Amino acid sequence: MKSSIENLEDSKVKVTIEVSEEQIEEAIDVAFKKIAKEVKMPGFRQGKAPRKVLEAKFGKEYARTEALNEIIGDVYFQAVNEHELDVIAQPDVEIIDGQEAGPVSFEATVEVRPQIIIEGYENLQIEIPSI
To answer: Which of 32, 33, 39, 42 is the most buried (most CB within 10 A)?
Structure first.
């Protein structure tokens, strides 16, 4: 996973993330296992249908979509932690490349806690009234 950040206006940050094809394939395998547990296939016990049978019935695209839904959230949170972002809202995620095949690139635009800088308070003098 590669990630980069770009500061935008109004306390927003654009996080660009690229996920390798190997990570996507691992997520697809996990998605097929999850699908196998959820569906009943005639001739197979629950959760024991082979991947080829599931691919024939549902297609690899369905499993890839399920895998992308899982992996995008995971790598997004890894990138947020890596760049130490103080996120205060849900991200707006847009897949840029790799929806159908290959590595996946996506952008997540998110609001972060604004940095408040107060200057010139060091030399202020305060009079405390006596009671």
So the answer is: 32
